[in-house]
Amino acid sequence: NAMMQFLQNRLMEIFGLVLFLIGVLLLIALFTAGKNDPSFTQISNAPVKNWLGPIGANVSAGLYAGIGLAAFFLALVPLCWSSFYFRKQPVPLFRFRTALLPISLVFLAGGIFALDGGGVSDNGGAAGAVIIGLIMRVMQPMPSVLGLQTIHYVGGAALFLGFLAWLWVAAISPQQWLQLGGQTSRIGRVV
Questions:
Q1: Across the strands, what pairs with 148?
Q2: For the whole model, what pTM was predicted?
Q3: Cα end-to-end distance, the chain, whole Å
Q4: How many beta carbons lie within 10 A of that of residue 176, not counting itself?
Q5: Which entry of 18, 68, 102, 124 is 20 to 30 Å from 62 by CA?
């Protein structure tokens, strides 16, 4: 029994390390993506500037094309989940969180797309354009206030809902969120 517990703990730590590495590699691929990097979405003779080479260029291009800047939220999820496995605890309701992850990312992408004004924005990727396009078909025009139009209101609501869902998916507890807020306010006082 002690041996099984030992092995289970090591497997959880290994899985946590794998999740952590996936999150870090995704962030590196996203942060170092070059606009002219050759990938399946961009034909170019330019040298690959992505630190992870052609694989990083293709991964980041696919994520940016699909969900835009919401790809950064995707990269943070494995980092959050890895903290559970490092503490030798499974992520609570893992299957439900995994199922809700794409939905939260689509709403985040939609919010980013709409707040950027929609139209030709690529900040929300294809998923953001699709979800906002579907919502805008059924929305009645709202009065403009301070230059904000209906698409901006829809974007704000989508971003809010997507962020709430993402917080649950990432398994960030209200206590952790408050601790994070306390740490950032201390940093703000120092600066």
A1: 145
A2: 0.87
A3: 52
A4: 14
A5: 18
**Phi-psi group of 119: left, alpha or beta (phi > 0 → left; psi -120 to 50 → alpha; rest → beta):** left
Q: What is the pLDDT of residues 82-141, one digit of tens each?
A: 999 998 889 999 999 999 999 999 999 999 999 987 776 778 999 999 999 999 999 888
Alpha-helical segments (H) within 32-173: 53-67, 71-86, 94-115, 125-138, 150-169
**C-alpha 153 chain-centroid distance:** 21
pLDDT tens, position by position, 60-98: 999 999 999 999 999 999 999 999 999 888 999 999 999
Q: Are 132 and 81 in contact (CB under 8 A)?
A: no
Written as one letter, the residue type at 115 is: L
Describe the chain by its helix, strand, coil percentages, rounded to 5: 70, 0, 25
**Phi/psi of residue 39, each to 5°?**
-155, -175
Q: What is the CA radius of gyration of the chain?
A: 19
Are residues 27 and 19 in contact, defined by beta-carbon separation less than 8 angstroms?
Answer: no
Identity (one letter) of the amino acid at 60?
S
Tokens of 45: 């003779």
What phi and psi values does residue 42 have, to the nearest 5 degrees? -145, 115
170 phi, psi to nearest 5 deg: -70, -10
